[in-house]
Hints:
The protein is α+β, with helices and mostly antiparallel strands. It folds into five domains: about 5-130, Schlafen, AAA domain (Methyltransferase, Cobalt-precorrin-4 Transmethylase, Domain 2, 2-Layer Sandwich); about 145-215, no CATH class; about 220-330 and about 345-380, Heat Shock Protein 90 (2-Layer Sandwich), CATH 3.30.565.60; about 390-460, Orthogonal Bundle (Arc Repressor Mutant, subunit A), CATH 1.10.10; about 485-549, Arc Repressor Mutant, subunit A (Orthogonal Bundle), CATH 1.10.10.10. About 40% of the residues lie in helices and about 15% in strands. The longest helix is centred in the last third of the chain and has 15 residues, at about 485-500. It starts with a helix and ends with a strand. The mean pLDDT is about 85.
Amino acid sequence: MDIETILAEGESLTIEFKSQIFDKELVKAVSCMSNSQGGTLLIGVEDDGTVCGARPRHGDATNPDRVAAVILNTTTPPLPVSVSLHHYGDHEIIRIDVPIADPGPTGTKDGVFTKRVLDTKGEPQCLPMTAHEIVSLGMVTRGQDFAAAVARGATLDDLDPDEFDRFRHRCADTGDPIAKLGDLDILRALGLEPHSAPISIGAILLFGKNHALRRWIPNAEFLFQDLRHGPSSTNDHIVGPLVKVAEELRSRIDSRNTTTEILVGLHRLEIPLIPEITRRETVANALVHRDYAELGPTRVQITDDDFIVTNPGGLPPGVTVANILEQSKPRSVLLASAFLRAGLVERKGKGVNEMFEHQLRAGRDAPDYSGTTLDSVVVSIPLGTSDLDLVRFLRTYENDNQRLLTLDELRVIHEVKASGSLSPGELASSLDLPSSAVRRITTSLLEAGIVESRGTGRSRSLHLTARFYDLAHDRSAYVRVKGADPFQLERMILDYVAAYGSITRAQAAELCQNTPPQARAILKRMVDKGALRMVGERRGAKYLLEETA
């Protein structure tokens, strides 16, 4: 990223501006950045992005190699950074590119360990790292499995024989031969017997008695909350070994699950409120992938609109919200393996993908990870009313053609359905897919008769075929979608905002005579173009002209 782009973007989690800074504070700033996502620090720039120029640091000039050497020699472990000088008008800027700490965390020689985070206003700041965070990050970046760490002072008496029986019973159901082993041999088979001691942290997590959990892993606590009004409302605090906790959470969720029945041809189809794969994977991922060094409980919540799981600790290294469908990296391989043998996670390692697929095939929106931060993973599963017309359409196609649609095909179909019509470029942007993948998927869907195209070149757009609207008994909607001119709709919205100051998603839907999801897509497109700016969030959001926002 060039200097002009960095200045235009402004300060963020990965960009920091300093007008002037002494070496001691500089070392703190770069080590703080390295313990987060790395990034770029510019010296000679005010907080608001105004370039004031950096003073020479070594007599009449600045030697980039000496700046890098100071940082390398006063951080622990030594942090290699890239330092360069750039001229901006009449001013000189010192640019320091900071890598992610590997191995980490990185501190100063004075023993200061901080990490860069965003505060409640979205502003970046450096906060002290706790002892738990330092240990946890150190193990993760060094490829060490915390479950293999020694639980010092623990003995076999701290483990519950009933929990070994519970684990054996589950393994017997999956046909795993570990079900025939004794307690100590199970620990050895799972890699949970350290060489220097008989009991590991992982053994306590899976088989420990409650007093052992409170002593060695006090953060292993879980909350189940049904926040809906009515007799099912509850707020349960759960402490226990992980397999038992997984079963208790499953029982609570299943007792509150409901199903909707529809007819697809001659077949009766049941659509659960929370699909079994969704319940299984969200709970198992929360138990296996959470950072047990982080304070706070894992929360499993059911609201009127969503099924939400919140987990302390960020995503495992290498996994991001953008690549979560492509990457599968457990924080603890040992715990993941134990859950796999007990049948508590997807054997192919693609449980998240299956969760997305089941959600979309049930006619609901995809799981949402947008609430995830560096300190917690949040997945929200929409529980709104299923789009039964879309479910019938998809199942009719799959039954007639004896072929299941792929996850990416389902994602494209849902996006097109929600928006009414979209161009291939808009699909690539909204789904974060390569243009080549979108071309391949849309070509397949066109050949299958699931979508149709209108226009050519950049004005080409895709919408669902007339067959869908026929099954939905809404043929007039097909005519509206096919004949809709996106530029005309945008012009109508701009005229409305110019006249009344702002517009909401519901008002845009009424104005354009389309659905709220379709209106959302049009408004998002206008925001991306810079025509509008969104103020507020979700249902409280409104859209203003960019120059008046």
